[in-house]
Design a protein that fits this description.
The protein has three domains: 115 residues, Thrombin, subunit H; 80 residues, Trypsin-like serine proteases (Thrombin, subunit H, Beta Barrel), CATH 2.40.10.10; 94 residues, Pdz3 Domain. Helix content is 12%, strand content 38%. It has six helices and 27 strands. The strands form six sheets. It has a seven-stranded antiparallel sheet with strand order 8-7-4-5-6-10-9. 40% of the residues are buried.
């Protein structure tokens, strides 16, 4: 399955030449009633059923708290959802500079200092950032920091009485929970669009497409899958639970499942369990520290295994080793096949990246490597990913 990020000017971004536009956005109101057993007496008629709970009333949540209606969630969070216009400078025929919008996305104000959480791909390459609020105000946005590895970024605006949305605990989500996506779909005038759906799955791993030069896109881990409609312009906007708390940052949608077969109702949001610590690091120091191995690699396929004359069927093939990197210092070479890290087999395309993501610079890991007919175990002390 291909995954397309909504890079939003013009409408969407193409993954492997494919532009995906998910269909009609929808709104929904969810209400629930407590169930009760009524035992009629012998002399009375059965009790009439209780009237439905109004859409505007809070309803009891299974864990004993309270849920809001979709309307109430929108009223609480929508004012803090901003439109981010990525502007870049160009020059006319007389060599005079002028700005053009290179992309439009979304973000959410999450504290009283005016910090805004969004996707890195919304702000990448910007020379100016304009942040527009639903109340009609617009501010220049200051880029505090960005992290391409997790596709997250933090901006800041300065203003009075800024609306703020609460960051919630994505770890409390369960499959089937209702969620609301809010964002500037298609950059439509009149403020953010509200759509609703459910949590379709948790703990997904997806890979973003690489750049035009052919480099690999980063893997995103522990993302939330939802069927809430997401469109170009939603990137960076919040996924919200029925307590009115932001539990994810909408980032990706699925493309074609196979040639000619379009995936339906599959979108992905970066969980706040991932986004919150990244945002904290960006605010504190403007950057995020990630471990660095220093290789480019491809998944091992049966045809590659046959070419290399090996029996392994799982792992990754080293295509290139970065000069001076930890991998180079440990003796890794092109055509090496890494089959395990710290004894754990690499059973998926993302297994190596996921294992490295659990470490920090300075940690030492042991790689099991096939080199021709040899099986090697190489110790690698991870470095710090260059900015």
């Amino acid at each position: 399955m291909q995954i397309n990020p909504w890079r939003n000017w013009p409408i969407g971004v193409v993954l492997a030449g494919l532009l995906v536009l998910i269909g009609t956005a929808c709104q929904a109101t969810v209400s629930a009633q407590p169930s009760a057993t009524v035992v009629p007496s012998a002399t009375s008629s059965p009790a009439a059923p209780a009237p439905p709970t109004p859409a505007s009333s809070p309803v009891a949540a299974p864990e004993g708290g309270f849920s809001l209606s979709i309307r109430q969630v929108a009223q609480r969070v929508r004012p803090a959802v901003v439109q981010i216009t990525n502007e870049q400078v160009q020059f006319d025929r007389f060599n005079q500079p002028f700005t053009v919008p290179a992309g439009v996305g979304s973000g959410v104000i999450y504290d009283t200092q005016g910090h805004i959480l969004t996707n890195n791909h919304v702000v990448a390459g910007a020379q100016q950032l304009v942040v527009s609020l639903p109340d009609g105000r617009a501010f220049p946005g200051t880029l505090i920091g960005q992290d391409p590895r997790t596709d997250l970024a933090v901006l800041q605006v300065r203003g009075d009485n800024l609306p703020v949305a609460e960051l919630g605990d994505s770890g409390k989500l369960e499959v089937g929970d209702w969620v609301v996506a809010i964002g500037n779909a298609l950059a439509l005038p009149g403020g953010p669009t509200v759509t609703a759906g459910v949590v379709s799955a948790l703990g997904r791993t997806v890979q973003e497409p690489g750049g035009s030069s052919g480099e690999q896109g980063p893997f995103l881990f522990d993302v939330i899958q939802t069927d809430a409609p997401i469109n170009p312009g939603n990137s960076g906007g919040p996924l919200v639970n029925l307590q009115g708390q932001v539990v994810g940052i909408n980032t990706l949608v699925a493309g074609q499942a196979e040639p000619g077969v379009q995936a339906q109702g599959i979108g992905f949001a970066i969980a706040t369990a991932t986004a919150r610590p990244i945002a904290d690091q960006l605010v504190a120091g403007g950057q995020v520290v990630h471990p660095f191995l220093g290789i480019q690699y491809a998944p091992l396929s049966p045809s590659i295994a046959a070419q290399l004359g090996i029996q392994a069927r799982q792992g990754v093939v080293v295509a290139q080793v970065v000069r001076g990197s930890p991998a180079a210092s440990a003796g890794l070479q092109p055509r090496d096949v890494i089959t395990a890290i710290d004894g754990a087999p690499l059973e998926s395309d993302s297994a190596l990246a996921e294992a490295l993501n659990a470490h920090k610079p300075g940690d030492t890991v042991t790689l099991t490597v096939l080199r021709g007919r040899q099986t090697l175990r190489l110790s690698v002390t991870l470095g710090e990913l260059p900015s």
